[in-house]
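Listing S7. Sequence submitted for prediction.
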Amino acid sequence: MQIFQSVILGIIQGVTEFLPISSSAHLFIAPWLLNWKENPLVFDIILHAGTLSAIIVYFRREWTGLFRSFFLGGGEGKPGRAQGNRRILTGLVIASLPILAVGFFFGERVEEIFRSPQHIASALGIFGVALFFADYLGKKAHSLDEVTTKAAFIIGLAQVLALMPGASRSGVTISAALLLGFKKEDAVRFSFMMGGPVILAATVYGVIKMGGLLYSIGIGTVLLGFASSFLSSILAIHILITYIRRRGFAVFALYRVALSAVILTLVFFRY
């Protein structure tokens, strides 16, 4: 892999992991369109480490508050804050369980079945439409510290759909949270933060399975891939949280549908 390719793929991973437009779809489609060789699976470890680091760094205050409230009972002096933080942390754990269980047993098989331009384009379009209607129909009334065990589990079940390339982990979880009545910014924050345990598990699993192959990529490629993924992730998180305070998700839904149409058109003419 060339160094410039690692930088480009790192940027794609960072931006599309958090914008609800599917990182797996873009990481597959970009090399496909550019006639690059398929990404080495071990390179995914580097990209996921970058996005994981971004989640930890960007939400460092939230993580500190959650763990302090859960283990020490602290609530930063505000009534009900400790209880709300404990509810959020419990919800994040519960929401992570379905995809960890299903992904461990069936994740590779699901990706193998659906990893084709046609399937990816279909997932982009279908879940893009779902995001549009979730944004339109959602009541946007509940705050994050009101998350219940039931709501967290439902959002976690939605996250399982992200095992299909093109579905988008952030897209399906934000859609589920919106349909459950959460405010836009709270839906985004919960989606991003619940990505922490999942991406951590994927990174650890990748290191155990393929970590020994990292040296074959080259130190420059590794460092630049990680850095570009980390920095673009930080930027994407900030942009989306800032953007949806004033606007909705329609632009992302329309982008997904348009990209789906473009891919299907290219597939038709190529084959």
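Caption to Listing S7: primary sequence and predicted structure tokens for the chain studied. The chain is about 75% helix and 0% strand. The chain has one domain: 3-270.
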